[in-house]
Amino acid sequence: MKLVAILGGTRLPFCRMGTQYKNLSALTLMTDCLAGLVKQYNLQGKKLGDVALGAVMNHPKDWNYARDAVLQSGLSRETPALNIQRACATSLETTAWVAHRIAQGEIECGIAGGSDAMSYAPLTFPHSFAQKMLSLKRARSLWNRVKALSHFRPKDFKPLLPSVTEASTGKTMGQHCELMAQTWQLTQEEQDQFALHSHQKADLAYQNGFYDDLVMPYLGLTRDNTVRADSTLEKLSKLKPVFAKNGTLTAGNSSPLTDGASCTLLSSLEWAEEHNLPVLAILEGIQTGAIDFEQEGLLMAPAYAVSELLKNHDLQLQDFDFYEIHEAFAAQALCTLKAWEDPIFCKTRLNREKPLGKIDPAKLNVTGGSVALGHPFGATGTRLISTLAKHIHTKGSARGLISICTGGGMGTAAILKAI
């Protein structure tokens, strides 16, 4: 098995839904981001082993999304590509795909990434509308066309709006997370404090230039428009609950619906040396878990995935210098942290004799998290990979942990370490 090197990555500035990217598709965002990475690493015209990309709210016309992005990216047209999707962990799974192929010696290099354009999410119509439109299209005579048109009813024209809703429960992720906050007895103040820190750390990271080589200028933007540098606890405390009448989750302590794209370059150590590219970090392992969310909070699967990953690598939760925990909601991250400290949860759910324990807050999402930076579903995984790889490379000898919750009661975790 070969070691898998993280060579770096790039992303577009993330944008709140309905703002600067409102007229751009997930394919357009991904193509432009991929082209940026190609330019950054002088990959124009080069044939790579594979490119794995994914989007969650993709348009049906972009069924060959990854290959279409590659064809317009500047890479050799002989570079293959495929679509992968696992909800919010999509680009962590694209990373796993490329990494697996490198580790097995099937390819020497590849790119993983993902995007989403919530502003461009396709509207669909009832099936009755589609059937009647097909009948209209098949009609050959004027009489048959009139007859087909007569079958339409007003309800056929009512669009089905895109929604982040669980098919099996009818609840949104926010509604499920509100239930988790109740189970773990989280207050709005706790969540607001966590959200405020996310914004403060993200703003400071931008001021210090941390994101200069991770976020490519795009359409006049150089930073995410989701970061609220002027956020305060007082402002956050005045926001009303959005998922339950007497709830604690607000727009201020939840990640916003976001448009954006990100991608990461991976290779074998030999390929990196041959192309004179520094290795930022090594991908040590990835683990995906799933839960029965009728018995458990929908977004609690990362607690399980991380536990299994630690067992597989004989590590403790405290054996890391950096933690990149995806903040779908401040409550989701806080519930996971509380679960790892809880003796009953760890014994009955994780089959551990002792709790996993606490994480040092100073090592958690040190340059901001999804509440501040935004969360284009398909793009968050490789955002975290590239961010963590840079942290590890900057520190020198270090190890980092990534954790992402997803819709459907799944979660994915990964470990990166210094070479």
Keywords:
alpha/beta, 14 helices, 10-stranded mixed β-sheet, 419 residues, Peroxisomal Thiolase, Chain A, domain 1
How would you characterize the overall build of this protein?
This protein has 419 residues and is of the alpha/beta class. It has a domain at 173-209 and 285-417: 3-Layer(aba) Sandwich (Peroxisomal Thiolase, Chain A, domain 1). It contains 14 helices and 10 strands. Strands 1, 2, 3, 4, 5, 6, 7, 8, 9 and 10 form a 10-stranded mixed β-sheet that branches. Helix 1 crosses helix 2 (65-71), helix 3 (90-103) packs across helix 14 and helix 4 (127-138) packs antiparallel against helix 5 (142-149). It is globular. The two termini are 16 Å apart.
Describe the structure concisely.
The chain is built from 14 helices and 10 strands. The chain has 419 residues and is α/β, with parallel strands linked by helices.
Order of helices and strands: EEHEHEHEHHHHHEHEHEHHHHEE
Helix content: 25-40%
Q: Name the CATH superfamily classification of the domain at 173-209 and 285-417.
A: Thiolase/Chalcone synthase
Number of strands: 10
CATH class identity of the domain at 173-209 and 285-417: Alpha Beta
| Estimated radius of gyration | 22 Å
The largest pleated sheet is described as: 10 strands, mixed
Structural class computed from helices and strand pairing: alpha/beta
Topology (elements, then pairings):
Elements: E1 4-11, E2 15-16, H1 26-40, E3 50-54, H2 65-71, E4 81-83, H3 90-103, E5 109-117, H4 127-138, H5 142-149, H6 173-183, H7 188-207, H8 233-237, E6 258-268, H9 269-274, E7 281-290, H10 301-312, E8 322-325, H11 330-341, H12 343-348, H13 370-373, H14 380-395, E9 399-406, E10 410-417
Helix pairs in contact: 1-2, 3-14, 4-5
